[in-house]
Design goal:
This protein has helices at 6-9, 20-23, 36-43, 53-57, 64-72, 76-86, 90-96, 100-103, 116-129, 153-164, 181-184, 193-205, 222-228, 257-268, 293-305, 340-343, 413-418, 446-449, 454-473, and strands spanning 145-149, 168-172, 209-211, 231-234, 240-241, 254-256, 285-289, 309-313, 347-349, 352-360, 363-377, 383-387, 393-396, 399-402, 406-408, 441-443. It has 481 residues and is an alpha/beta fold. α6 (76-86) crosses α9 (116-129), α10 runs parallel beside α19 and α14 (257-268) crosses α15.
């Protein structure tokens, strides 16, 4: 590495957040970017360790020590090429990835780990600012045509890879704009949409066809799909939300998280929302049920609406703030996370089960809850939930957001008409080559593996592209990851 003692001289320094009083008034990105010199200094902390566990932990296998070294020496073009060798969208993961690599950083054993994610973002944004990153299509075309259903991170990564291999790729998206969860599921204060559009423009210039507002299976028949393409990849995500089937669920004022987030993103994009359809948190008491990232995003949007108060509750116990014996290094640990939305205000509570939703004149007004414990286990060692006697209480609410995750992809006419089989969890089943039970039909991302991370979706898209290329051509020069 450029400075073998850098980790001894330089302390970890992440990107600062904009002041809370400022950022809650808009939907612009909450973090302020680091300058290049500060990023180069942070890259010097990478230790050139014998076995880079960061690489092992990364779902796309990023060449982390290599591009940290290149950035430290000012070899920005080399660093960018190394990034793009394993990751189609570093500007996305550099903003949104939970950075499993950092939890596996060798330096993290006895010090703060390297700021891998922010270094990644610094490299790719330098490339865009300096005009290094430009559209560059394939030298020749194979004559093979592939349809990809879904324009989220898995579909786009698969499309990018197959286009690089020379195939003609068409991506179909049933929403009015491409991007999937990146477009409508991630708030702008975490990912401003010009970042996504910048990359989509490159893909289009390189030859990828993006067709929106088309529901494959309805607007395009399966027969037309099969006749027009040599292979199909299903990358529609996991979009069916987990519901809360308890008394009072039918009351007004109870919404799924994605309905709330999608609407907020459309509003930021300048779209008009009909008054009777608008999920407005302004001046209201908000309760978000679900303690994950989606719930945190709902907390942040509620703050920007001007909610009077926000409470987020989670069924599971509060995670530890440091590693436990169950999550020794280099495993990715289940730790307490405080997002930028949590720093903006609100209250968080754990080990709470919602028993009943109580309304007045047909609208939700309170949640009847009870505290639970997971201190007992069954004969197989699995935690058992039990309600704590005498711990019943109520939470006042004018608006309840259900952010409890997703159960499986939509089981619509597309899957039925293609005749693909499902796994026991309701996801699209594939073999180890990403092919479904229907010949020539592949699947990738959350639609195949279930609800997961964006970086895993990119990895899935790349792996499926390799499999599709090999299926069509007999062999593939595309990387397996």
């Amino acid at each position: 590495m450029g400075d073998p003692r850098g980790f001894l001289k330089v302390k970890r320094e992440g990107s600062p957040y904009r002041p809370v009083c400022e950022r809650v008034k808009d939907y612009k990105e909450v973090s302020a970017p680091r300058d290049d010199e500060r990023s180069k200094e942070q890259s010097s902390r990478c230790m050139d360790c014998g076995t880079p566990f960061c690489h092992w932990a990364c779902p796309v296998g990023n060449y982390i020590p290599e591009w940290n070294d290149a950035m430290f020496h000012g070899h920005w073009k080399k660093a960018i090429d190394l990034l793009h060798a394993t990751n189609n969208f570093p500007e996305i993961t550099g903003r949104l990835c939970p950075a499993m690599c950092e939890y596996a950083c060798v330096l993290g054993i006895n010090d703060d780990p390297v700021t891998v994610r922010e270094n990644e973002l610094a490299i790719i944004e330098h490339g865009f600012r300096q005009g290094i990153i430009k559209a560059s299509g394939p030298a020749k075309r194979s004559g093979k045509r592939i349809a990809i259903i879904g324009s989220g991170p898995a579909g786009l990564a698969c499309a990018d890879q197959l286009n690089k291999a020379g195939h003609e790729v068409t991506v179909y998206e049933k929403d009015d704009r491409a991007g999937g969860i990146l477009r409508y599921g991630i708030p702008d204060f975490k990912l401003e949409k010009w970042v996504l559009d910048r990359r989509l423009d490159i893909l289009k210039k390189e030859g990828v066809k993006l067709i929106t507002s088309v529901n494959v299976g309805t607007d395009i028949t399966i027969s037309e799909l099969r006749k027009g393409f040599d292979a199909v990849c299903l990358a529609g995500g996991s979009r069916v939300p987990r519901d809360l089937k308890i008394e009072g669920r039918e009351l007004k004022g109870i919404h799924f998280a994605m309905d709330f987030l999608v609407q907020a993103n459309r509003m930021v994009a300048g779209e008009k929302i009909l008054e009777d359809k608008f999920i407005d948190a302004k001046g209201k008491r908000i309760v978000v049920i679900g303690g994950g990232d989606t719930g945190s995003d709902c907390v942040g949007v509620s703050h920007r609406h001007g909610a009077s108060c926000v409470v987020q509750i989670e069924l599971l116990p509060q995670p530890s703030e440091s590693r436990t014996g169950e999550y020794n290094w280099p495993k990715y640990p289940l730790l307490l996370k405080r997002s930028s939305s949590h720093e903006e205000g609100g209250e968080r509570n754990w080990s709470i089960l919602t028993k009943r939703l109580i309304g007045v004149d047909g609208r939700v007004k309170r949640l009847s809850c009870v505290r639970v414990s997971f201190d007992q286990k069954d004969e197989r060692g699995r935690p058992l939930m039990r309600e704590l006697p005498g711990s019943e209480f109520e939470i006042e609410a004018d608006l309840v957001i259900l952010a409890m995750g997703f159960v499986h992809p939509e089981h619509d006419i597309l899957l039925d008409a293609l005749g693909v089989k499902l796994d026991p969890y309701g996801n699209v089943a594939t073999d180890d080559k990403y092919m479904t039970s229907a010949k020539g039909v592949f699947s990738a991302g959350d639609m195949r593996r279930g609800q997961s991370l964006i970086v895993w979706a990119i990895s899935e898209g790349r792996r499926s592209a390799h499999a599709i290329d090999k299926y069509l051509m007999g062999s593939s020069n595309l990387p397996v990851v």
